[in-house]
């Protein structure tokens, strides 16, 4: 393959060059044509963006009605969309209908039985027994019964003792009259004082000896 000698061969796209061809002239023509187109576009739009041609605005006006022809509005056709049920729903409904038919056929063959109750004999009326509920039984709770009995006993004993004390306090316990039978009280005369009075007025007792007491006896 021949090598193309151009100063701008690196900028050209690879699609322009036909690597299978062996002609240098064809390759150079393709590359030159591509660069020429690029230069023309840059002149038209230097920013590199392609300018779009402005399309003319089409005004869609309503046509003017003809006054001689009478106006006949077109009524839109009413269309109803029917929803097709799913095959699963169709199967379930068909199965249910078949079951109902079979049940009706079986019920026709059977004889209906009367389920009415017989009338009672009014001569002897048997009423049901009245259910009497049992009385609630007290259960021991923290030995309340025993404690109550002990408290009642102690209370009675305390009341009896209080009554005895009140009776004893009400009885008069006077001492016997011994004043008339006894001799009258005579106070003893004091002798001369053999006591030396101090300067401060305090009494100083004389010395006492036990030998004197024994001698008197």
From TrEMBL:
InterPro entries, per database record = Aurora-A-bd, TPX2_fam
**Record-annotated Aurora-A binding domain positions:** 1-47
Q: Disordered: where is this region? A: 182-217
Identify the GO cellular component terms for this protein.
microtubule; spindle
Q: Where is the composition biased (Basic and acidic residues)?
A: 186-195
Gene Ontology biological-process entries: regulation of mitotic spindle organization
**Superkingdom, taxonomy of origin:** Eukaryota
Q: What protein name is recorded for this chain?
A: Targeting protein for Xklp2
In its UniProt entry, the species of origin is given as Tupaia chinensis
